[in-house]
């Protein structure tokens, strides 16, 4: 990702972490979504965990000295120093089946902040959750419950739940509370799409222009050759008119030549092809 894309992802995560749920059930759901044994280098997520009533490992173990830059969030039920060991969906205390929609989205917001990552590259978006392998099908099922189905697989012993569709990712981020950052993301995607379409049109026009220039060069050389040996004057009137128009406006397209001559484009094209065929001693194109 470019520096600009990384800054946008960081801003999006900070925006989500700054959300302060007002309902007690949403606060509990988001805390459950963060999981137990959370370790993060993002200050905004550490502050969120503390706001949700979680305690840092340093607070629960004052004598603990660390060199790590991670802030570890202690689980109420354990003093384990290893992040992720108890981060199983079956142990997070959240009843997904009985939860209201707003609680589900709060839980998903916590899960994304704790275990999710967003990558932007060349206009493409990729969002994935890296979780214990046994939790991957459970999380994929929960995402399907909210009409956002995702693929999952096991990678190096860890479960990976993935979206690669930008529209699906946008819907998810908007529903978990991203607003300003998602607008910026969508604006960038539109800008990239427009640049891509503009480049496609420019490339197509350049290719057409190159073909027209090459064809005009052949036609002018053929006209000069036929004029030098007197065969140009023997051609039908339509061919002579097309030759004169080509000489007068070497840069003109076939459409422009046909407009000048008041003839169909196909008629002008056949006339110029006949000239080229005669100059190359080929069987000339018939004129209608």
Characterise the protein shown here.
There is one protein chain. Helix 2 runs parallel beside helix 5 (101-115) and helix 9 (237-248) crosses helix 11 (265-279). The protein has eleven helices and seven strands. The chain has 288 residues and is an alpha+beta fold. The strands form two sheets. The protein has a four-stranded antiparallel β-sheet with strand order 4-5-7-6. Strands 1-3-2 form a three-stranded antiparallel β-sheet. The two termini are 60 Å apart. Residues 57-70 and 76-86 have low confidence and may be disordered. The protein has two domains: 3-178, Endonuclease I-creI (Roll), CATH 3.10.28.10; 200-279, no CATH class.
Provide a short characterization of the protein structure.
This protein is of the alpha+beta class and 288 residues long. 55% of the residues lie in helices and 12% in strands. The strands form 2 sheets. Strands 4-5-7-6 form a 4-stranded antiparallel beta sheet.
């Amino acid at each position: 990702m470019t520096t600009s894309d990384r800054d946008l992802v960081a801003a999006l995560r900070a925006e989500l972490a700054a959300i302060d749920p007002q309902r007690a059930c949403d606060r509990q759901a988001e805390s459950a979504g963060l999981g137990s044994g959370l370790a993060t280098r993002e200050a905004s997520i550490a502050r969120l965990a503390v706001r949700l009533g979680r305690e840092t490992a340093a607070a629960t173990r004052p004598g603990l000295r660390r060199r790590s830059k991670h802030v570890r969030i202690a689980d109420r039920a354990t003093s384990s120093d290893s992040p992720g060991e108890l981060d199983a969906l079956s142990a997070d205390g959240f009843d997904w089946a009985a939860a209201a929609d707003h609680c589900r989205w709060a839980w998903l917001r916590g899960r994304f902040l704790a275990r999710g990552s967003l990558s932007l590259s060349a206009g493409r978006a990729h969002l994935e959750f890296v979780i214990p392998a046994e939790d991957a099908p459970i999380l994929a099922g929960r995402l399907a419950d909210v009409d956002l189905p995702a693929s999952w697989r096991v990678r190096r012993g860890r479960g990976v739940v993935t979206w690669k569709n930008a529209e699906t990712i946008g819907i998810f981020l908007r529903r978990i509370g991203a607003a300003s950052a998602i607008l910026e993301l969508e604006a960038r995607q539109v800008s990239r799409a427009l640049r891509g379409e503009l480049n496609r049109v420019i490339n197509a026009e350049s290719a057409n222009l190159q073909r027209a220039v090459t064809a005009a060069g052949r036609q002018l050389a053929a006209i000069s050759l036929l004029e030098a040996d007197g065969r140009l004057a023997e051609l039908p009137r339509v061919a002579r008119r097309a030759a004169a128009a080509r000489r007068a406006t070497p840069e003109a397209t076939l459409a422009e030549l046909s407009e000048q001559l008041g003839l169909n484009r196909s008629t002008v094209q056949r006339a110029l092809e006949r000239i080229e065929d005669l100059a190359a001693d080929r069987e000339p194109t018939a004129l209608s």
